[in-house]
Amino acid sequence: MGKGRKERVVPLWQTTTKCISDFMHENGIKDNDYLLSGRNVKHLTRSGGVRYRIDCIVKRAATNCLSLKNKSVTPHVFRHSTAMSLLQSGIDISTIAIWLGHESIETTHKYMVADIKLKERALNKLHEPDLNAADNRYHATDDILQFLNSL
């Protein structure tokens, strides 16, 4: 169950599926049970429980990866990272919108605006103009100059 109480199905790599399956087996979680549950409830709330579990995992990981120490990692960070990875892999925005469950492609468009790497790659595909070259200037033909003068 996701944001807006929408249920979403997303594909997973086989290695991810194996890790989840192993986790479920090790923790006695049945197929229809919640993957993450709290002490007093069947499932974790999005606002508290899931965030708390992520904070614990990030804190543990920060002992080996110091750059995580002061990072704020939320469920949305995973979602945003997935969207950016898809975008940087060349997946079209319509497919990403479907993946994220966006009703409007405009919502997904913000990921494109934010991606500086995508902008850099686009810029690198262009030839840098030689602003000093005399032949780079536009030279209007006599017909065009005559037309403009007649205005």
TrEMBL record:
Tyr recombinase domain spans which residues? 1-124
Per UniProt, the keywords (alphabetical) are: DNA recombination
GO molecular function list: DNA binding
Reply yes or no: does the keyword tRNA-binding apply.
Answer: no
Q: Which PROSITE patterns match?
A: TYR_RECOMBINASE
Record's InterPro entries?
Answer: DNA_brk_join_enz, Integrase-like_cat_sf, Integrase_catalytic, Tyrosine_recombinase_XerCD
**Entry keyword annotation includes Repeat:** no
| GO BP term, example | DNA integration
Q: Which domain of life is it from?
A: Bacteria
Record's protein name: Integrase/recombinase
> Which species is this record about?
Gracilibacillus boraciitolerans JCM 21714
